[in-house]
């Protein structure tokens, strides 16, 4: 259940009550694709960096170790020792992005595993069964993520099929949640809005899926090649047609600037691999801009990554030390920077929520963006 606490223009401040706890929104979900955050972080680390929701991927866990194995081990929460909410992506994006050989039909998609090449079929029912085996808090509907640019006729046909797939997802989840051996009988379902950059297709699709009374709604198929201006425009056009009393999730986004702009336009949920991916390559986020710790100017820098930060890395270690670790190819370097970056993103979301509670979000956004731009983030 989503409880809207207050609004500031289109920006929403809410609470999302789930079987695994209450999520304070807006929220950034920390991406652990294969039930682990890349960079050697444990679930204890996630708690330390203020993670509210962990995100794992249906396709990857189906391929390895196998969703049936995870079910036998008690589900994803028990498997990775995490008792807070987990969202599982449906696998749709990976099916369409990781494979070169695939065949899309009304039933679903035939494709080859990126691990061992074996043939796999995945459709709405299969995706729901895998996610039910995982026992995640929130399951995402199976959809087609359309590349941009795309021909209008293709987009229209794809969106219509995605709508039919969503109906099948909802029906199958209801069936699975009624079974005696289902791990999470209260598993929630989010539908996904598609339509590339055609605003009229997006709007009509938003209207159609809003009628289905789902637990939440995502905007998919963005941050896949379009400009930031195009992305913001689509969000502005689509959000008014999605239920305000349900969470809105912008998939795969993004940078701190993207998040601030999307919150202002009514988005509640975010996820992105950027903080962990950049951290593994010595790129760290700070309130004074983004730093590359491999730069020679940090060789004798005894300051922490960010002097305003209280994360485990900044509490003890210097830029000079972390730079040395990267130069020495020591795993600890990646771990410290990923810890810092996730703490930075989660703290920013905490600040956004506090600013909204105190009716000063526009001022907060303006000051935060000015700081980023002044220092080249």
TrEMBL record:
Similarity field: Belongs to the queuine tRNA-ribosyltransferase family.
Record-given protein name: Queuine tRNA-ribosyltransferase
Superkingdom of this entry's organism? Bacteria
Q: What is its EC number?
A: 2.4.2.29
Q: Where is the tRNA-guanine(15) transglycosylase-like domain?
A: 10-371
Coiled coil (UniProt feature) = none
Cofactor(s) required for function per UniProt: Zn(2+)
Q: Which reaction does it catalyse?
A: 7-aminomethyl-7-carbaguanine + guanosine(34) in tRNA = 7-aminomethyl-7-carbaguanosine(34) in tRNA + guanine
The gene for this chain is: tgt
MF terms in GO:
metal ion binding; tRNA-guanosine(34) queuine transglycosylase activity
In the record, what lineage is assigned to the organism producing the protein? Bacteria, Bacillati, Bacillota, Clostridia, Lachnospirales
Can you tell me which residues bind Zn(2+)?
Answer: 309, 311, 314, 340
Span list, region RNA binding: 252-258
UniProt keywords, alphabetically: Glycosyltransferase, Metal-binding, Queuosine biosynthesis, Transferase, tRNA processing, Zinc
Q: Specify the enzyme's EC class, one word.
A: transferase
The entry's free-text remark on the cofactor is: Binds 1 zinc ion per subunit.
Q: What does this protein do?
A: Catalyzes the base-exchange of a guanine (G) residue with the queuine precursor 7-aminomethyl-7-deazaguanine (PreQ1) at position 34 (anticodon wobble position) in tRNAs with GU(N) anticodons (tRNA-Asp, -Asn, -His and -Tyr). Catalysis occurs through a double-displacement mechanism. The nucleophile active site attacks the C1' of nucleotide 34 to detach the guanine base from the RNA, forming a covalent enzyme-RNA intermediate. The proton acceptor active site deprotonates the incoming PreQ1, allowing a nucleophilic attack on the C1' of the ribose to form the product.
Q: Which residues of this UniProt protein bind substrate? A: 89-93, 143, 194, 221
Q: Which Gene3D superfamilies match?
A: Queuine tRNA-ribosyltransferase-like
Specify the pathway: tRNA modification; tRNA-queuosine biosynthesis
**Any single GO CC term annotated in Swiss-Prot or TrEMBL for this entry:** cytosol
């Amino acid at each position: 259940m989503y409880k809207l606490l207050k609004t500031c223009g289109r920006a929403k401040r809410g609470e999302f009550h789930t079987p695994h706890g209450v999520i304070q929104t807006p929220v950034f979900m920390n991406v652990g694709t294969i039930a682990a955050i890349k960079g050697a972080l444990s679930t204890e680390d996630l708690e330390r960096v203020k993670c509210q929701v962990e995100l794992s991927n249906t396709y990857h866990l189906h391929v390895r170790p196998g969703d049936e194995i995870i079910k036998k081990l008690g589900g994803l929460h028990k498997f990775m020792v995490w008792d807070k909410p987990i969202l599982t992506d449906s696998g749709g994006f990976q099916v369409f992005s990781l494979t070169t050989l695939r065949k899309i039909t009304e039933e679903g998609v035939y494709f080859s595993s990126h691990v061992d090449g074996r043939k796999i079929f995945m459709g709405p029912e299969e995706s729901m069964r895998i996610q039910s085996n995982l026992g995640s808090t929130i399951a995402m509907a199976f959809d087609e993520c359309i590349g941009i640019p795309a021909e209008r006729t293709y987009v229209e046909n794809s969106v219509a099929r995605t709508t039919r797939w969503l109906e099948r997802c909802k029906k199958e989840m209801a069936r699975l949640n009624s079974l005696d051996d289902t791990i999470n009988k209260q598993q929630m379902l989010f539908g996904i809005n598609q339509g590339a950059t055609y605003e009229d297709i997006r709007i009509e699709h938003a209207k159609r899926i809003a009628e289905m009374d789902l637990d939440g709604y995502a905007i998919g198929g963005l941050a896949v090649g379009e400009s930031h201006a195009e992305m913001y425009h689509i969000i502005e056009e689509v959000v008014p047609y999605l239920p305000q009393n349900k969470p809105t999730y912008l998939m795969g986004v993004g940078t701190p600037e993207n998040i601030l702009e999307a919150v202002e336009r009514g988005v509640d949920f975010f996820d992105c691999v950027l903080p962990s991916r950049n951290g593994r390559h010595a790129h760290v986020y700070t309130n004074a801009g983004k730093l590359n710790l491999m730069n020679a100017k940090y060789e004798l820098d005894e300051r922490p990554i960010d002097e305003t930060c209280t994360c485990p890395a900044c509490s003890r270690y210097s830029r000079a030390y972390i730079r040395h670790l990267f130069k020495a190819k020591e795993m600890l370097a990646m771990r410290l920077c990923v810890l810092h970056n996730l703490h930075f993103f989660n703290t920013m979301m905490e600040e956004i929520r506090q600013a909204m509670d105190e009716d000063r979000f526009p001022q907060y956004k303006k000051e935060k963006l000015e700081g980023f731009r002044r220092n080249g983030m």
